[in-house]
Amino acid sequence: MALVMYLYPKCGTCRKAKKYLEEHGVSFTEKNIVEESPSREQLAEMVAKSGLPVQKFFNTSGMKYRELGLSKKLKGMSDDEKLDLLASDGMLIKRPITTDGEKVTVGFREETFADTWVK
């Protein structure tokens, strides 16, 4: 699978991540996380391959997260319920999510991108 980055075009972190890959000659397909949100199955697979807990996939600084009061609600939810919630609205997902089908990174840290995506 080619590298895919789920991003939100107005997100500054997403723009930095995109610029970083472009500057390092890494080709990728861009998907708008709101218009082409990953499915529940895709999210479950990304969570499994990332080695991260489902909570790390939530955009905790987003308005939608705060509106829904998820900081309190997530603790009592199962992973299945969390995945259902993430799949229901792309704005709840932390971005960018970058994957090649085997590896997954959530958010953008230059060191992580260098180690994971820049060969």
Keywords:
119 residues; alpha+beta; Glutaredoxin; four-stranded mixed beta sheet; 6 helices; 41% helix; 12% strand; Thioredoxin-like_sf; Arsenate reductase family protein; Tscrpt_reg_Spx/MgsR; Arsenate_reductase-like
Characterization of the model:
By secondary structure, this protein is of the alpha+beta class. The protein has a single domain (4-116), classed as Glutaredoxin. The protein is 41% helix and 12% strand. The protein contains six helices and four strands; from the N terminus they run E-H-E-H-H-H-H-E-E-H. The chain has helices spanning 12-23, 40-50, 63-67, 70-73, 79-88, 110-116; strands at 4-7, 29-32, 97-99, 104-106. It has a four-stranded mixed sheet, sandwiched between helices. The longest helix is centred in the N-terminal third of the chain and has 12 residues, at 12-23. 29% of the residues are buried. The mean pLDDT is 96.
Secondary structure: elements and pairs:
Layout: E1 4-7, H1 12-23, E2 29-32, H2 40-50, H3 63-67, H4 70-73, H5 79-88, E3 97-99, E4 104-106, H6 110-116
Parallel strand pairs: 1-2
Antiparallel strand pairs: 1-3, 3-4
